[in-house]
Amino acid sequence: MALLYRADLTPGKLDLIAGWLPGRPWYRGPAAPQPERVSAFRFDDPAGEVGVETILVRAEPDGPVYQIPLTYRDTPLPGAEAWLLGTSEHSVLGTRWIYDAAGDPVYAAVLAAAILAGGTEAAEEISTDEGLVSRTPAMSVRGTGTPGADVPAVTAVAAVKDADPTVITTDSLTLALARVLDGALPAGPALLWGERALAAVV
């Protein structure tokens, strides 16, 4: 379950994405984008410490859709300065360090688990004064693996090739992440599927 809050985030996620996106080697939009959220989904961090959200955005009307997974942390991730979009002030949780999740081992672990064990997006609940309120996720995803399958433990990201697809090499497996959702992922059975293939274990 992803626990959310009715809160303000300053600067907002789209503001941070707007400043970060033009520096990506796979980006092909305007120099000063005004990203528009197309959809989003979340995964659970089993430890309950790191927020994991994938946002799909367009940088311009009728432009391609970009897949941008983010992780939200309450302290900096050591050694991940290259993947930091910036910090933001959350009106409930305080300062959040927001990362391109390609460089975060928690994202690699939950993505691999979703793909190999047939996982889905997390259920979402919003914390309110009246208690927890369920919210329907904006989109659904599913891994093509088998529920209950063994998933190699991922504890570190060894290397990231920041291209399209982005290739994430961990200490136990390699993942490919589609960035521009009109391209292609490596063929194979181990995929995360939305309306199209979003990521793969390769």
TrEMBL record:
UniProt keyword terms in alphabetical order: ATP-binding, Kinase, Nucleotide-binding, Transferase
Domain Maltokinase N-terminal cap: start-end pairs: 20-104
Domain of life, per lineage: Bacteria
Keyword presence, Transferase: yes
NCBIfam families: CG0192_rel
Stated name of the protein: Maltokinase N-terminal cap domain-containing protein
